[in-house]
Specification:
The protein is an all-alpha fold and 262 residues long. The chain has 12 helices and no strands.
Length: 262
């Protein structure tokens, strides 16, 4: 009876996880073992990886800073319309990446609001949607709601007595932040940072909409297997992207002792 119950689970696991992963890992070997290292030996794909890393790191850092500040403020401040504001700030969680990219195009695209305004003022058509800045703003817009909701929940569950004790002992606001807030929020920071970084590394919908002047690794993978049918190279790039993301999640899981991350 036990075997009958677990058979569907085992079948599903093998068919939709184990076999695809095994096939993905084996594909580059069809073109030679050097194919596994093409992301390091080919300057084009190495630059694509570095672009993705740079973009993801910067988005993660700014997301944690802004999201942390907003989340702590919302957790510690009561005011009229607070629930409505939280709902509006977390609304982008329901948007797919393509819609977020479309928002950036409406703002900074060739026919966007800023381009039309600059053209009306006689300054030419200003655009930023299709390069690094457009991707950065889109990823930030997509990531901030996660950070805000995570920090709001973490700040609401903080032990307020620690802050009260620190203040009674004469600690300044900076010392309270350094000695109480940062340690208390460290698990949430690690978990949120890891998820934001991993999401930015693998984001495709937003990048597909905006990355015409700034190529990132998910777009390189898409081009190889869709436009050129180079499945071995696409598999190699996918492995490299998966290794970087998995390593980040594993480190965050280890440092925070949280088995849920990733």
């Amino acid at each position: 009876m036990l075997l009958v119950c677990i058979a569907p689970v085992v079948t599903f696991f093998c068919a939709f996880w184990l076999l695809p992963i095994a096939r993905l890992l084996a594909l580059p070997a069809e073109k030679g073992w050097e194919m596994y290292f093409v992301v390091l030996t080919n300057s084009k794909y190495l630059m694509s990886l570095l672009n993705t890393l740079l973009l993801s790191v910067l988005v993660t850092l700014l997301t944690l800073i802004v999201g942390g500040g907003v989340g702590i403020f919302l957790a510690r401040t009561e005011f009229l319309g607070r629930r409505l504001l939280i709902s509006l700030l977390t609304l982008p969680l329901s948007f797919p990446g393509v819609i977020v990219g479309f928002f950036i195009i409406l703002l900074g695209g060739r026919q966007g609001t800023i381009a039309n305004f600059a053209d009306d003022m006689g300054w030419g058509r200003w655009t930023f949607a299709y390069g690094f800045l457009g991707l950065f703003l889109a990823y930030l817009y997509f990531s901030l709601p996660r950070a805000i909701s995570s920090y709001t929940a973490a700040a609401e569950s903080m032990n307020s007595s620690l802050e009260e004790v620190a203040r009674s002992l004469g600690a300044s606001r900076l010392q309270v932040i350094r000695d109480v807030w940062i340690p208390e929020l460290a698990p949430a920071t690690l978990a949120c940072g890891a998820i934001v970084f991993a999401t930015a590394m693998g984001a495709f919908g937003t990048a597909f909409t905006l990355a015409s002047k700034f190529e990132v690794l998910p777009i390189s993978i898409y081009n190889e297997f869709t436009n050129y049918a180079n499945f071995s190279l696409a598999a190699s790039l996918s492995i490299a992207l998966g290794l970087v993301t998995s390593l980040t999640l594993a480190l965050a899981r280890r440092w925070s002792n949280d088995p849920v991350i990733g």
